[in-house]
Predict the 3D structure of the following.
Amino acid sequence: MTITTPGATGLRGAVGVAHTRVEGRDKVTGAARYAGEIPFAELAHGWLVLSTVARGRIRSLETAPVLDMPGVLTVLHHGNAPRLNTDYVGMLGTPDPTAAVFQDERVPCAGWPVALVVATTSEEAREAAEALLVTYDEEPHDTALVADHPGAYPGEGHMPAETEKGDLEARLAASAVVMDARYTTPEEQHSMMEPHAATAVWDAGRLEVFDSNQGATWIRGDLAKMFSLDETSVRVRSEHVGGGFGSKGLRAHQVSAVMAATVLQRPVRVVMTRRQMFSLTGHRSPTAQRVRLGADRDGRLRALEHVSLSRTSTVYEFVEPSAGVARVMYDADAHRTANHVVRLDVPSPTWMRAPGEAPGSFAIESALDELAERCGVDPIELRLRNEPETGPVSGLAFSSRNLSACFREGARRFGWADRDPRPGVRRDGRWLLGTGTAAASFGSGAMPSTALATAEADGSFTVRISAADIGTGARTALTLIAADALETAPEGVRVRIGDSDFGPAMIAGGSMGTRSWAWAVTAAAAELRARLAVVPDIPPEGITVRSDTTEAIAALARKERHSFGAQFAEVAVDIATGEIRVRRMLGIFAAGRIVNPLTARNQLLGGMTWGISMALHEEAVRDRNTGRYYAPDLAGYHVATHADVPDIEADWVDDHDPDDPVGIKGVGEIGIVGAAAAIANAVWHATGVRHRNLPIRPDRVLTASVPDPDPDPAPVPGSASVQDPAGATPSGGGVAHA
Ligand code: MOS
């Protein structure tokens, strides 16, 4: 079904009109095959065996009894697995060697892959894997992120570790109002619906991998380099992907499946369980952040410092760049940001749902709310007074910055003007009510991609691009883009994605997928139309052209390129149980031209729902003594579900990107940014209590104490949990005593 608006249908009118997913029927009827369910003859099944200790060395693997078990074909481990090359530069730079399994006896964390048991059925493989006896020489481990960890150092990741201008201490000392607060966020897990799965098959000298990933050419390139194969002899396909959120890169499942398929010379499938995914597929590091602000009485910032500490593994340096938000959002005479990291005995973290921006915006947008309270200035007005002219750190012009339009429209629709700024004064029975707001931003970039456009002899078109639709609706968006660019209706275009044979293209990541692919598709379509204009007839095999946007993207002027948004939340806090319910949420975004309003809204609502989850529910808890997770599954790890989201709305203001051929910026990740802060700010407005540690669990609400002129230094029993990175407890008033 196509939802149409009058006057917007027909030729060159597809972009901007709501369109259901072109593969929607296939998905809901089960016709769409995911990586773990494509049938193969002679398929063998691999089951990963994970370490039970958090640090040490494998002393022995008793494989003989397991090899005698029913159906078992082989057991791969560091003693017999093929050697891998990890010394290469991949599509995304230096690869994360976390996926290079079975190369030595070292165990860097609990849940590290130590063996793959392959059998003729999945059940036999699992049975044997669980029977495999592995002994370890255990070493002392450290898995706890604490603020001021002695091992912390500046971590670069994909951006500079530190930025600094002006004399911060002097400006803070001279400021009329000063804010200094620490914030923590816990380890979070991607928790996409479809678990990681891959099937590796050697077919006539060519390696084929059917996989669930965020970029087929990326995985193809990394697998080829890792196994020292020619890239043309590797093909990776990922036609349907049930969510990724940053976690679906090169992982143990593809690598171990390729190893086993190579050794056994038959198709091998490796599927992860939800529990295995906790340690095998990356996660968001916990953070310990400190924000210091100095301002004039009217809220104008004079000094800003944001320092964030995250943790990485001993195998790979991944930095959660939480202090990066302030580099774009707020300026001050003295300005310092720093991302620090410490190596601990934990699995490697990775990109997850607005990496950096999500936890960073919780800290800085909470701090600004607190500053607004101290200054007696409305939180929206405070932000508008601090709108920078140019990039606060880069000095570059913004390509467009429509944050104030988002706040104006959001305030109007949310009913912000009627808000009583006083905290803790609204009651609805046993519920305390409050509202909060926060700003959002996320980078909007484009990366080089190639696309193939074919004019078929029957008058239809086929577009091929190695894009990944991880649930975003990218395939449908590209269909609309191609239809307009080819001056035809969406029904006349087939878009094929998820195949590395279509050539290099950007991954589904960084909120850059659809924009990057749309650029390549637009370019290919233009070239095809030019070709068709001079060709009398289309031959039976069609006419195909290929685009490459490398040069066009390199020619873009250097600017601060970002999407922006304003988040609003209303919460109710149960004074008896500490339960927080989000009653309504509104997000207004300036995120470039919206290609498909139906799926774009869905993406933004999904991001905002993550924000609810981040504020109130999500927390992967690790036992310091064993270094292992407690309850690593979706019963123990809570994510927001339908019942947690009663009334949520996302919309946008006009914001065509001036430098993009279609006007796109990207809506991938901005939906979560600022959402947790808006909720935490609403909880303060409801209760008078600042919660600076996420998630804001009922026990934290109940055990928080009212700010007391004569505070009792004794900790409240049970209020400090092992995973609090700063060992901190919430400050401020407990509503139970309010
Ligand atoms: Mo996204 S965290 O860049 O896949």
Observations:
- The domain at 356-445+556-733 is CATH 3.30.365.10 (Aldehyde Oxidoreductase; domain 4).
- The longest strand covers residues 431-443.
- The mean pLDDT is 93.
- The two ends are 53 Å apart (CA to CA).
